[in-house]
Structures are given as C-alpha cells and as structure tokens.
Here is the input.
Amino acid sequence: MINHNGALTSTQSPVFTAQNRGLLFGDAVFETLRYSQDHIHFWEDHYFRLMAAMRIFRMDIPMTFTPEFLEQECLRVLQAQSETAAAWRIRLTVYRKDGGAYLPTTRDVGYVIEAKALDSEYYLSAENYKVELFNDYYLQKSMLSNLKSNNKALQVIGSIFMQEQGFDNGILVNDEKEVVEFLNGNLFIVEDGKLRTPPITSGCLDGIMRKQIIRIAKKLDISCVEEPISPFDLQRVQELFMTNAIVGIQPVTSYRRTTYDKSITIKLQQGLFGWVSSNQGA
Here is the structure.
C-alpha cells in the first residue's frame, strides 16, 4: 500500500497523470527514512531538511505539513502493509501539482509515501565493499546538489556503470575535481586517526547520517573536519567509509590498489548503535 495525499491505495493503482511535474521535470523533493524499533530514526532532521528543500524549490508549504502530521502519514503506510518486517525503508516524496512547462502554473504540492521491508532492524553493512571513482560526469558545486530531489540522472548513470564494472559503489567528483560523495551516500576518510569529510559547499548532499556521524565523532573525542578531499587523498588514508540513512555506516575495503583498515569505522559504528538507542524517536 501507498499513501497518496492521505488516501491509502494499492501500489498497483495509478496515482499520477501524464502531466505529473515530478515525472516531466524532476519537480519534486523527497526523504528516505528508516523505521525500526517502533520509530522513524532522526525524524526531526529529516523533516527540517524536507521543509528547507521545499522552500528552495519555491513550493507552497501547506499549513497541515507539521512534523506530527507527516510522521503520522508515514506510519499509516506501515500499518496498512500486508506483510510484517523488523524494519522499513520509507520514501516520502513531495511534488508540485500538474500544470505549466518549466514555469509552473501553481506552487501547490501533493505527496506520496511508500514503504519497503528491510532485512534487519539493525544497521547492517557488507563485509567486502569495493569502490571506484566515477568521473564521466561531474557534480556541480551548488545549493541544489545539497538537496534530495528527483534530479538524480548522475546517480542513475553512475550506478549502472558501477554495476557493469563489478563495483559496489562509485565516488563522485565535482567540477573542480574534488571528491564529493558516493553515489548513494556521504563520504568520510580517516587519516592519522582524524576524520575528514567534504564540506557542504563542495556540492555533497546535506546528509542526515552525515550529521549524526559528526555528532558521534565529537562525543567520542574523534577529531572531525570538513574540508576538500582530492582523489589522491583516497589512496593514502587509512580508512574510507560511506554513510546514509538506511545502512548507517558502510566501510570500504578497497579502492584501486588501496585496502583499508576499519578500526575507527568500527568504533563509529558502535557509537552509532548507542546514539540511536539513546535518541529513540529523534
């Protein structure tokens, strides 16, 4: 079941017209949420990022779009599922309503919420994870790159390429040849016991899990700096890992001829588990 503007309907039922602006122009923003242990993790951070994206897209935000309302609409989808699961991946998409070409005829919005079952209530990472640089196309350094929007052609093309080449993920670079992020998550490196991640100004996604890792590192007294990273840096650091809201922290085992340790990464994974347990409902 999905939730389309408050109405629960089958995933097989058509809900959009051929004029849907999310389809025609990518005129939509979204959040990917993880539900387990009876709550949506880091809901408040997700909610405020969604509101910020809607404002940047110049969408009219309905008065009903309170944190409580949207959270309840997400939970209604889970309650309507015919299957049971220990955890769920929820996608909340907000799109501008039909009308117009590049210039819309309205700023009103609609929303659709869907859910897919996950295998475990805990954050799980792959044991072996091989990555490569994807530099056929570059990510632009702009505020739009920081958003979760439907404009994801670069990530789609990159994901297909990495699958064809036998890699588990790809690393994106911006138009100044700086390392920015993974195809589906933020990027961190560990060098001499210190944590580094590209700044938001590099064009990376303003990731929810990225924020949590920076907070956890501070709590664990691990130095963390936000500064540009070059492709050459990746081959001389001790650890490399990816973060997103679904898997949490995914350690990278190899990039080209470089293999990585996991000591700080594992410490952060353990810190994440404790952080989530002590911040239930956040």
About this structure: The mean pLDDT is 94. The chain is about 25% helix and 30% strand. The two ends are 26 Å apart (CA to CA).
